[in-house]
Amino acid sequence: MSNQKLIRTLRCKNRKFIGVLSKLISTISQMGGDIGNISTVSFGELHNIRDITIIVNDEDHLSAIVSAVRKIPEVEIESVIDEVLELHRGGKLLVRPKIPVQSIEDLRKIYTPGVASVCKLLKEDPSQIEIYTTIGKTVGLLTNGSRVLGLGNLGAAASMPVMEGKAALFQQFSGLHMIPVLINTLDVKRFIDSAETIASTFSAIQLEDIRTPDCYEIEAELIRRLKIPVMHDDQHGTATVALAGLINACRMGGIELKAAKVGQIGLGAAGSAIANLIMKYTGNPVYGSDVNPEAKKRFESLGGINSELKDLLKQCQVVVATTGLPGLIKPEDVQKGQVILALSNPFPEITIAEALTAGAAFASDGSRVNNLLGYPGIFRGALEAKALRFTPEIFIAAALAIVNQTPEQELIPDPLDPLVHAAVAKAVAKTAVQCKVTRDFER
Hints:
Elements: E1 6-15, H1 20-30, E2 34-43, E3 47-56, H2 59-70, E4 75-81, H3 83-87, H4 104-110, H5 115-124, H6 129-132, E5 138-143, H7 160-174, E6 177-182, H8 188-198, E7 204-207, H9 214-225, E8 230-232, H10 233-253, E9 262-265, H11 269-282, E10 287-289, H12 293-301, E11 305-306, H13 309-315, E12 318-321, E13 339-342, H14 352-357, E14 362-365, H15 375-385, H16 392-404, H17 418-434
Parallel strand pairs: 5-6, 5-7, 7-8, 9-10, 9-12, 10-11, 12-13, 13-14
Antiparallel strand pairs: 1-3, 1-4, 2-3
Helix pairs in contact: 7-15, 8-9, 10-11, 10-16, 15-17, 16-17
C-alpha cells in the first residue's frame, strides 16, 4: 500500500455570514486535514465561493472530511478537484527553439545547407561540440521506473510524471536542460548498454528511481564506462541534503557531529549513501541497522558497523532513519539529548513531537529534506568545471554550501531560493578542480 498523501481542492459555496469560513476551516482541521492555499473564486450577494486545498492521508480520509464538511448547514461543496492531475495534463515540459525561424534565410542557416559546415567542424574538432550544440548544457535523466517514490515498480512509462517534474525543477534552478529518458527494462546489463549507447547526447547523467541492488551496479558500471559525471540522485543527492540537515540539526541540538556516535536505521539506497557520506565527512564509522542481510553486508564493506536497532538507539547520540516504517522508533527508546532525523516521508519513524517529548535535544522529519536542494547545483557545478566524475569531497562541499545558506534555527534553507543553488554550483565547481577530476587534468 502506498504511503503517499493526496492533495485535493474543495470548491465550497459558503453563505455570506461572519464565521462560516472559520467553521469550515475548523471542521477540516478537526478531521486531521492539512490546509494549504485558500483562494476566492467569486463574491456574491448571498454566497462566496472559495477553493480550499487540503492534504489528506488517503481516499478514505478525504471521504471522511468531505462528509464532515457537508454537515455544515451554511456550506455546499460544489466539487472536489484534483488540481495535481490537471497540472499534469499534456505533461510539464516544452521543447522550444532558441532561435526563431522567420525567413528562408533563417532556415538555410539553422538547417540545410548551412548546418553542414557546423557538422564538418565538429567532426574535425570534437572539442567544439559543447560550444555549437546543446550537449554541454544537457543532463540525461535515466530511469526504468523500478522504484518510483514509495510506489514500487510502476514501470518506465508510469514514472514519467516524476521525471518531468525533476527536469522542470532542474531547468528552473540550474538554467540548464534535463531530458528524461525511459529505459524500459529490468535487465541490468541491457540498461547499462542502453545508457552507454545514448550517453553522447549528454554532458552528465542522473539516474533516478531504480530499485536496489540494481542501482549500485548500474551506477558503478556507467561511471567506469563513461567520461562524464554519473550520479544516482536517490543515493547521493539524498545523502548530500541529509548531511547538510544533520550538520545543522547537531548545531541546534548542541552536539558536535564529528565527535558523536552516529546511527543509521535503514540501509537501502538512501540510507547507505547517507551513512557513507557521514563517514567520509567525520572520518568515523557509522552504526547501521537493517533487516536485509545483503544491505548489512554492503554496509560493512563501506566501513560501517552493523548493530541491532535497540542497541543503536541506546548508544548513538545522533540517529538518522530512512526505513519507510512509520512508528518504528518508540518514544521509550529515545535517549535524552539525542538528535533524531526520521526522514521517511510523509509518515516518519517517530514524530517530532514524540521525539522531543521523550527527551531528544532536536528532532525533525523528512518533510523539508528535499533533493531539490542538491541536484540542480551539483550538476551545474560539474558541467561548469567540465568534471569527469563525482567524488565524496564534491558532495560534502555541496552539503556545506547548503549549510552556509541556511538561516539560523532552520534545518535547511528554502529549496526555492536561487541563491542556494548558485552557492552549491560554485562549491561543486571549485571542489571538482581541487580534486583534479576535470578534463583539464585528463590532458
